[in-house]
Specification:
Elements: E1 3-7, E2 10-13, E3 18-25, E4 33-39, E5 46-51, E6 57-59, E7 67-72, E8 77-82, E9 91-99, E10 102-105, E11 109-114
Parallel strand pairs: 2-11
Antiparallel strand pairs: 1-3, 3-8, 4-5, 4-9, 5-6, 7-8, 9-10, 9-11
Length: about 120
Amino acid sequence: QVQLVESGGGFVQAGGSLRLSCAASGSIFRINSMGWYRQAPGKQRESVATITWIGSTNYTDSVKGRFTISRDNAKNTGYLQMNSLKPEDTAVYYCRSWGRFGDYWGQGTQVTVSS
């Protein structure tokens, strides 16, 4: 019912910025919570940032003050603005949309931050 496609990943030097996008299809995205998760090689997948359908946000401590999650329900799109990137931010970033009707994940987009 919901399909998610991430884009915007790439290569950036430490201190740089990227904006990830999560384009959604399906009728329930607007009422779902959504979030960004990341997984680095050899590490567990972790939550980076989440946002509810009414706009309440939460961030993992390591990205507070650097990353901003947002959503544009009119465009069925979620975003993750990443500033002051660090090498430890290198990971595959995944978009997630979940609610009472299901739990959906995108395919991921690679973010690589060089030192």
